[in-house]
Prior knowledge:
By secondary structure, the chain is of the alpha/beta class. It is built from nine helices and eight strands. The chain has helices at residues 3-12, 29-37, 48-54, 75-80, 93-106, 129-137, 162-182, 200-205, 215-218; strands at residues 19-23, 42-45, 63-66, 84-90, 110-117, 147-155, 191-193, 210-213. The chain has an eight-stranded parallel beta sheet with strand order 7-6-5-4-3-2-1-8. Bound molecules: pyridoxal-5'-phosphate (PLP).
Amino acid sequence: MNVATAIESVRTSLPQGVGLVAVSKFHPAAAIEQAYSVGQRAFGESRVQELLAKAPILPNDIRWHFIGHLQTNKVRQLLAAGLELLIESVDSLKLLSAIDAESVKQGRITNVLVEAHVAQEETKSGFAPDELLEYFRSGQYRNLRATRICGLMGMASNTDDTERIRADFNALARLKENIIALAPDLVDFKHLSMGMSDDYLLAIDAGSTLVRIGTAIFGPREY
Ligand SMILES: *Cc1c(COP(=O)(O)O)cnc(C)c1O
């Protein structure tokens, strides 16, 4: 199946109100162009160098979603590229502060999601749910000067156990609601980014507003 056909087929399975991020990491710019040609505008990348190599040779109305672990020492370079950007993978207060400070310096506003860790694997990154609840309960987010927190991102456990996956997505959905209850003035906190190629239908059942799909669109990645 080619990229255009695959993307149409994923799209028909998405209810209204659920956005599609085509995860293009490890795939060439030519693959992104194929998706772009059938109207796809949001793409997901996980490495700063790779994103900065691809973006300049692609149309400038692409919206880039950064979904990988972001090192604080790469923030300046990422923001300086002047891309339309949503950093979905903010996984520490240190990173959030670095993004905010750099955004002030560059005179821009940066949109982010906070990443929560609910899955079984220790290897996955993200805030512990309690840590996020404490952050929003304390009102510290009001100190951000140039960062807009637009919602929550997360992943389910990497398992065939459907009930476990559902439980993880439900936990993320509950966390989103709890954060909204603690921080009702956070008017941009709307997104719940969850669901990948193998589990996005379960994520949508649980309330996902944004699915991040790579393999089902572009085929397997060659690392
Ligand atoms: C790679 C990646 C995806 C896409 O995974 P697929 O299984 O290929 O759909 C989604 N989210 C994140 C955070 C990723 O790193």
